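Feature request, filed as a ticket because there's no other form

It would be nice if the structure record came with a short human-readable summary line next to the tokens. Right now we just get the raw output. Example of a typical job, pasted below so the devs can see what we mean:
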Amino acid sequence: MKEYALIVAGGKGTRIKSSTPKQFLELDGKPVLLHTLEAFYRYSENIHIILVLPADDFATWEMLCTRHKFHKPLILQRGGDSRFQSVKNGLDKIDGDGLVAIHDGVRPLIHEDIIGASFRLAAVHKSAVAAVRLKESIRMTDQDTTKAMDRSRFRLIQTPQTFQVDLIKKAYSLKEDDTLTDDASVAERAGHAISLFEGSYENIKITTPEDLVVAEALLRSRKGRG
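Raw output as currently delivered:
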């Protein structure tokens, strides 16, 4: 099947306390977003990438591509007012069927093995969502009381979230609401079962200043192993 990657990068850097959108912050000498894209090209030079950015960020992206000599082929698409709308806009750029991995642009440490696993499993199950087990105990709160929960029954959801193109396109014809927090929840609302597979604890999302520090350390560790 034809393989697509839809990279959504519309963050504004609010929680990371930066005037620079977090996808453009420097990580080991390159923008966070560039690390993300390079991971998908390491997986396959033949993958079709759609990059969704706010229209106001197009010029910044072109300048960064020139500065870092990044000339890989991709389709640039204008984002919407929400992640839901941005993904929907990105999906509109796909003609025909195949498989699409939808991934957060600020998860730069995604490994090509995880990307490959998502496509292989989605080819069989029509969906494949990266997830990891909880490491710590959790409690459910209800006003003034709390209750211990069995952490083995829960998973932390990551991206990529990979789907058969036709399935996820039809799912995104649903009306948007605040409970649809990721692509899996959209597909599930449309009546589709969601298949999880083992992600990676290294596949962190850059949200806070501490995340950048951790990401730098993980990149140095990878270089040491490589």
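Something like this underneath would help us a lot:
The chain has a mean pLDDT of 95.
The radius of gyration is 18 Å.
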